[in-house]
Amino acid sequence: MQNNPDTTLVTQTARIANATHGGRAKCLQRLLRLDLPVPRTVALSFGTVDRIASGELPNIDSVVDEFPKDALLCVRPSSEDPDWGGPGAVLNIGMNDARFVNFSKTMGEEAAAAIYTRFIQSYAINVARLDPDMFDDVEGEGRAALEQTLDAYELEAEEKFPQSRRTQLAAVVRSMARAWSGTSARLLRQAKGAPADAGLGLVVQQMIFGLGAGQCGSGVLQLVDSDTGAPQVTGRYLSQSQGRDALDGDEEALYLTRDPRGPSLEEKLPEAFETLKTYASLMRVRLRAEMQVEFAIDDGVVHILDGVRVSRSSRAAVRIAVTLANDGIISREEALMRVQPRLLTELLHRQIDPNARRDVVGKGIAASPGAATGRLVFDSAEAQASASRGEACILVRRETSSEDVRGMHAAKAVLTERGGITSHAAVIGRGIGLPCVVGASSMVFNQRDKTITSKDGRVFHAGDEMTVDGSTGQILAGAAAMREAALDDYFQQLMAWASDSADIKVRANADTPLDAQTARNFNAEGIGLCRTEHMFFDRGRLTVMREMIFADTSDGRRAVLERLLPMQRDDFTQLFRIMEGKPVCIRLFDPPLHEFLPMDASGQRELAEALGLPRSDVTRRIEAMREYNPMLGLRGVRLGITVPEIYEMQARAIFEAIVDASENGAPVMAEIMIPLVSARREVELVKAAIDTVALAVQAERGVEFVYRLGVMVETPRAALRASEIAPHCAFLSFGTNDLTQMTYGLSRDDAGRFMSDYVQQGVFDEDPFHTLDHDGVGELLVLGAQRGRAAQPGITLSVCGEHGGNPESIAFCRAAGFDYVSCSPFRVPVARLAAAQLAI
Ligand code: PEP
Ligand code: MG
């Protein structure tokens, strides 16, 4: 037997490994090495199971010979990673008519009949693949039920129930091996991250009954609460039961520790309880993980059947990892590796309670995580009115634009009919931590009637209460039970360790003092992108902005911009102060000007009144500014060159803010970034203008200051021509949102409409606005970085598009030698943990 490579008796010294026999077999060996009372076990390797699945006959003799003649057996799956699952366990193999008679004498007829009946049913369904309904007519209990079950089996299977333990075991093993290679099982485990060719091992174990005379039963125990990760012995125990029966909600099941809800194992069987606790603590320390112990008690004696990693919420995962490290059981690096970065997202926002009932009425793209309940409002003014009454509201729009930002600030969540992962609502939502679902085209939006209608015809009006789940994209009728964000000490501890390990920096995209404060709270290493246009969305500023756009001459524009200057200066001063010497990268004005103009008749009328112009003038001017393709039109640096007054005002505001914020020697590190560059001359012109303003401010204020000027690489040409652009800059920051848009020729605002079709049909592996396209956009990043560095060694390289918060994209940037990534403030913790894991 020891020489038979197909089957291995699990002993302390046998050759068993996760990669050959699976996690369960390896764990059982570890338990044996701890001298825990584990029943006799034989492991079948991945190769063996694979051959059986392909039709080879299992070598059952070598398995069966390892067990006492009368023993019943069970078979359980053992995949490499226990989280990948596997076919369900089959218990009580070997039960037959003769053993029924024998067991009836030792454990009583009822218990023996229960075991046999249950085995026949599980064999019929899982192995012989018969219809589960065939046992519906079985009535009564004990021997009567057993006889009916045997008859039903014979009728349906057209043969008697097999009596030989060998035959039964061979059939069980074959059926489990085949189940693993089936298509649905493969898809299921691939969804959990398993490779397509993941192997399955099997463990065959001697049954401990948990039924019969004396104290018998089974249960599970763990030392922490799965929801919070706090130390707390939890689990259930059911007398006269097997497997995981105790967890099936049987009212007779005992709690483990004293509990007001009912009697406990601690009270009923104190010795067994203490033994189990000792075993579980030993497993925690020696297996270096919080384990759930599956046990059976047979005539008062405790047996350990299995140990699996405790299932855990995201919050518990963080607390468990940090506590194990603090207890010296694992290293800090290991603690960092044990938490999946994406899980942190759940901790940073309110979430719908996983146990809550969900009345889902629609679905869109999950664009900004977190969930909120509120009454529906259909424009920003209503949102602000709602907020001023202290009422939670959800802002519903076809899509959002600059005018909706104030409404978004007032709302608890935003829901749009159109848009994709980098559309306006999505970007702003993530920036301010506002739950957001976009592209919810499964519902009909009627802005005029102020209704949204679900596919099945349910109509929701303004004022109706709904819940938006930006983590899943679901839209729910009514309120749902929520779970609060969990930024507890364990989270903070893990983040501090992450910063110690990471070797690529993480900055935040922050537009307002509030964003900057969030970024600081999450320990961002600076601001990597401040989109200054978002500062003009305030009601008061919007009107001034519109006046500037309508001014006819350069002097007229300058006069209006004078009024915006102190506002911008105050914004920047606040940002510099909040960031306390950490770099603040300010991007000069980027969007097309007409984004600031009202498109609807009532807005245009208001504007005409505010400017004292005839309405026809306003309409005509707006019409004249219309572009066929505004994202490729007069925006970014093009505006900086053709309407230079805006950049001059912004540069002055930045420089004056540097002087103000650095009074009394407080450090300021300002960076100015030029958007949408495609040619060297653009940089030369803007740089010259900005340097002139700097000199003027230094002369006026009588102080010197330093600043860094850089370019945002958002067009393919800027990446390709990086060698001639880089010599003029201190940094290149890749704006991968626009770069993706322009590389694919794919509108970031419209792609949401067909992206899911494209992904489903395998045209794109994933939405390239969400996960960086390594092959195409990535090649431009690498080219631009290489060319930029060759021309200007020491130039700072970064990514500030939405991809900056994505763990795979961070890995790409790190491999390409980038200095930092910048992402929405609420994604900073995810990015920091991902960065740390890459460096470990
Ligand atoms: C980008 O294009 O990647 C970027 C960060 O700028 P924005 O999203 O503001 O266009
Ligand atoms: Mg851009």
Overview of this structure, please?
The chain has 840 residues and is an alpha/beta fold. The chain is built from 33 helices and 31 strands. The protein folds into four domains: 7-206, Dna Ligase, domain 1 (2-Layer Sandwich), CATH 3.30.1490; 217-312, D-amino Acid Aminotransferase, Chain A, domain 1; 350-483, Phosphohistidine domain (Glucose Oxidase, domain 1, 3-Layer(bba) Sandwich); 502-592 and 627-839, Phosphoenolpyruvate-binding domains (TIM Barrel), CATH 3.20.20.60. Helix content is 43%, strand content 18%. β14, α15 and β15 (393-397) form a beta-alpha-beta unit. α12 (314-326) packs across α18 (489-501) and α19 packs parallel to α21. The two termini are 42 Å apart. The structure holds phosphoenolpyruvate (PEP) and magnesium ion. The site of magnesium ion (MG) has 4 residues, from α29. Belongs to the PEP-utilizing enzyme family.
Keywords, please?
about 45% helix; metal ion binding; kinase activity; eight-stranded parallel β-barrel; about 850 residues; alpha/beta; elongated; binds magnesium ion; binds phosphoenolpyruvate; Dna Ligase, domain 1; Glucose Oxidase, domain 1; D-amino Acid Aminotransferase, Chain A, domain 1
Q: Please report the distance between the alpha carbons of the first and last residues.
A: 42 Å
Q: How does CATH name the architecture of the largest domain?
A: Alpha-Beta Barrel
Low-confidence stretches: none
The CATH homologous superfamily of the largest domain is termed Phosphoenolpyruvate-binding domains
Percent helix: 40-55%
> Could you give the order of strands across the largest sheet?
12-22-21-14-15-16-17-13
Number of beta strands: 31
Mean pLDDT: 92
What Rg is obtained from the alpha carbons, in whole angstroms? 33 Å
Number of helices: 33
What is the count of distinct domains?
Answer: 4
- Overall shape: it is elongated
Largest sheet: 8 strands, mixed
In this entry the ligands are: phosphoenolpyruvate, magnesium ion
CATH class of the largest domain: Alpha Beta
What is the beta-strand fraction?
15-25%
Decide which structural class fits the backbone. Answer: alpha/beta
In CATH, the topology of the largest domain is named TIM Barrel
GO molecular function: kinase activity; metal ion binding; pyruvate, phosphate dikinase activity
EC number: 2.7.9.1
Family: Belongs to the PEP-utilizing enzyme family.
Enzyme class: transferase
